[in-house]
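Q: Here's a chain of 114 amino acids. Please give me its 3D structure as tokens.
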Amino acid sequence: MLKQTALAALLGACIVAPAAAQSQDVGTPPPGTIAQSRALARQHVRQGERAGQITPDELSHLRADAQALRSKLRALRQSGAPLSRDQRQSLRRELRGLHREIFAARHHGVRRHR
């Protein structure tokens, strides 16, 4: 009887553990969202700053661009209505531009080999 109980508990742990490991963190934005893209940009800027890949001038420029994007997003959301498709596309386009600037700042002078 004890063996069966232990086996059932072990089997239950084997089933539940992978599902718990795949669940997202509560503080992580869902993938593919504007919030997730902004969080990724912040993370890349911090990594570049720590590694010394981004100069102070580049850092201030990137922060100003990110602040402008935040202000635009805040202004669009103040109406209370959900963002339209065109507004989301515009924000994503600007975020992609910001990501390109971050990449360029972190990899200036570095050439890729093909």
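Q: Can you summarize the key feature?
A: The two ends are 63 Å apart (CA to CA).
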